[in-house]
């Protein structure tokens, strides 16, 4: 809604344990400085920090960032509204995250199936 380039489909999330801020930026189509800002606004978004204060995001962080991105850019929520929506869904969050993970895994499996059929 706010970002005309946000309508393109996001790439699948690779099967890795940790992702750098640059990788997450590409996977979610969000600039690194925006990710750092969202960390201050959304308490649940808390990547692991290691040497030199480098951020390492896990799969659930990437899924949450995609959810935040969808709320802000596609559904038109404000930061405060998106925060409230995410906090309000805390009880239902596990089921929505599970559904999101299932969709992602299914998409990845379909891609593998296409590669195997070649």
Key words describing this protein structure:
single chain, 118 residues, mainly alpha, Multidrug-efflux Transporter Regulator, Chain: A, Domain 2, 61% helix, globular, disordered N terminus
What's this, in brief?
The chain is mostly helical.
Describe the protein:
This protein has one domain: Multidrug-efflux Transporter Regulator, Chain: A, Domain 2. The chain contains 5 helices and 2 strands; from the N terminus they run ααββααα. It has a two-stranded antiparallel ribbon. The relative contact order is 0.14. The N terminus is likely disordered.
Explain the layout of strands and helices:
Elements: H1 21-28, H2 32-41, E1 48-50, E2 54-56, H3 59-74, H4 79-88, H5 90-117
Antiparallel strand pairs: 1-2
* Rg over CA atoms: 15 Å
Strand segment count: 2
Low-pLDDT ranges: 1-6
User: What's the total helix number?
Assistant: 5
The overall pLDDT average reads 85
Strand/helix succession: HHEEHHH
Portion in helices: 55-70%
Profile the largest sheet.
2 strands, antiparallel
**What is the level-2 CATH architecture name?**
Orthogonal Bundle
- Structural domain tally: 1
């Amino acid at each position: 809604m706010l970002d005309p380039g946000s309508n393109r489909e996001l790439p699948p999330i690779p099967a890795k344990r940790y992702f750098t801020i640059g990788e997450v930026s590409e996977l979610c189509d969000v600039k690194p400085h925006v990710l750092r800002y969202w960390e201050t606004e959304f308490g649940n978004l808390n990547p692991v920090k290691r040497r030199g204060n480098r951020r390492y995001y896990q799969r659930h962080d990437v899924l949450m960032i995609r959810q935040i991105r969808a709320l802000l850019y596609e559904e038109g929520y404000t930061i405060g509204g998106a925060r409230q929506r995410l906090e309000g869904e805390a009880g239902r969050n596990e089921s929505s995250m599970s559904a999101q993970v299932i969709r992602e895994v299914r998409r990845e499996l379909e891609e593998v199936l296409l590669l195997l059929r070649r």
